[in-house]
Each structure stands twice: as C-alpha cells, then as structure tokens.
Write a structure and sequence with these properties.
13-stranded antiparallel sheet; two-stranded antiparallel ribbon; about 35% strand
Length: about 300
C-alpha cells in the first residue's frame, strides 16, 4: 500500500477505511538530479495537531519515500526496513501536498543509508537520515525481554478519548483516522492537577491499515511521537518545538491496540527530553523514539 492509488479506487473510501495508507501513497516524479528519487505525497488534515502536520507522521511519510526509492534502485534490498531515522525539523508543514526528495548515501549487505527531505511550497521543512536493515521477527527471538508496561492491552473505562469535539480532539485530530485514548492515571493535567512528567496512551489503526504489514510499520513509527509533551503534567502547555528526534523501528506490530509510554530523564529550565516506546497487543516493543524539545510557557 505504498504505491499510488490504483485507477478506479474511490479515494473517499480509502481515506475512511485505510486513512494512513494515504500518507504512504506516493507518486513518482522526474528527479532533478541523476540517481535521486522524487515523490509527491499528500498528508490529510486529520494528521495534524492544531493547524500543523504531526511530527511522527512526517517521519513515517519520509520513511515510505526512502523505502520506495531504495527498492527501486536496489531491488535486492527490498526486504530491508527503516530501522532508525534521525530527524531535524526546519519548519512546520501544513496539511496538503508535499514533495519528498530522496538520495542514497550507502548500500551495504546489512545496512543502507538513505536521506529524505520533505519539501512544501518550494521550501525544505523536514530532513531525515534513515538507516535501513533487517527487523527482528519471530525467527530472531529477543535475548532479554523486560516488562515494558502494566498498561492494559485495551483502554480502561475511564480513559480519555480524542473524539472530534472533545477537549483533546479539538487540538489533536488523529482520532478521525484511528482510535486514540489517553491514560487518566498518568494524565494529571486533565483534572487541573500536577504530577510526574510522564504519559501513557492507546492507539488503534483502522483494520485495513493494520492489515498491510508495511503500513502498520509506518504507523508504529508515527506512534512513537504520539503522546503529548510530558511537561504538560507540570503545568506547561502549548507547542513544544522539537530540537531533534530519533526514531527506531524494532519489529512489525501485531494487529490490535498499540500502547505508548512517554517518560523523561530531565525537564530543564528551557528544554526537556522525551522517550517514547510503542508496545503492540502481544506486549513486544515495536518502536521507540527520543527527542529533545523546547519547553513551552507555563499555564497562567
């Protein structure tokens, strides 16, 4: 589901039943430079926080472009997946059409390096350096498996929904494309209280998005940036511009709910770090991220 939509496909139906596949659906364009890839993509407005495109969604779309070009140039590396992506946000794209420019830096038997720049209206806005390799799978069992979370597999009865029109849904529009719930126990800010800078949530893609293993992997990449900024529990609300983010894809997720846990090592005077892990319905680690971001202003 990472190629452009087949002729005769009802776009509205695809958007309703498999909306994230639209993020990964690319149209190849003529490249400006020999050996480079160039793709047109569309990021629908449901993948926004406020008026701007969600950061993890930009990384996922860029990963789809990187994978598409690597397979085009090096078909023998088709089994490789984006193990990591180091992302710099140069600007804040708006929903709509975007352009991906792709270049391959290294081709190896175990590791390939691919760079992607997301452009919009003639400006480079997101730059990601991807490392491709082979994901862990059932045939490569982990040597050490800690308990990643005690969060139930499905949202609890008092979980906070992101439905359109709700307090969360008015800002985070992702629930129009997949189910999203925030764990109330850790989200102290919901009750106008303060607590530890940590958050947990559940995310469930649409069935058709989950059914395609590659799209499901891109969703795991996106999910690793899904929790609100953790300083919100300390009374700091608003936009937290990311200084730098690194995302890891560990394995393809099983169908069902994804559980996301966000923690921090330190909330400094002007910046904070955030670690997010994504655990699938079977309890295994499928993705993770670490980012450094600027602290927003405290709530007054």
């Amino acid at each position: 589901m990472t190629t452009e939509t087949e002729p005769g496909t009802d776009i509205d139906l695809v958007q309703a039943e498999a909306p994230f596949s639209r993020v990964c659906a690319l149209t190849e364009l003529a490249a400006d430079e020999p050996g480079a890839g160039r793709y047109r993509g569309v990021v629908d407005e449901i993948w926004t926080i406020g008026p701007k495109v969600h950061g993890g969604t930009m990384v996922a779309g860029s990963a789809a472009a990187a994978a598409r070009w690597l397979r085009t140039v090096e078909p023998d590396r088709a089994a490789m997946a984006p193990l990591s992506g180091s992302t710099d946000f140069l600007g804040a794209p708006e929903p709509g059409e975007v352009l991906y420019e792709v270049s391959i830096r290294k081709v190896g038997r175990q590791i390939c390096l691919v760079d992607v720049t997301l452009n919009q209206r003639g400006r480079p806005l997101v730059r990601t350096a991807f490392t491709f390799g082979h994901l862990d799978g059932p045939e490569r069992a982990p040597l050490y498996t800690p308990t990643h979370t005690d969060l139930p597999v499905e949202p609890s009865a008092d979980a906070i929904g992101y439905e359109p029109g709700s307090s969360m849904g008015r800002i985070v529009h992702v629930a129009r494309g997949m189910d999203a719930f925030l764990d109330r126990d850790w989200a102290r800010f919901i009750d106008n209280e303060q607590g530890e800078p940590r958050l947990r949530m559940w995310l469930r893609p649409r069935p058709r998005d989950q059914a395609d293993p590659e799209t499901a992997s891109y969703i795991a990449i996106m999910a690793a940036d899904m929790c609100p900024p953790v300083p919100i529990n300390l009374g700091y609300f608003g936009w937290s511009p990311t200084v730098q983010m690194t995302t890891y894809l560990r394995r393809r997720p099983a169908p069902g709910w994804l559980r996301i846990i966000a923690t921090t090592h330190e909330v400094g005077g002007g910046m904070f770090d955030s670690d997010q892990i994504v655990v699938d319905s079977t309890g295994v680690l499928v993705a993770q991220s670490r980012q450094l971001a600027l602290l927003p202003s405290p709530k007054r």
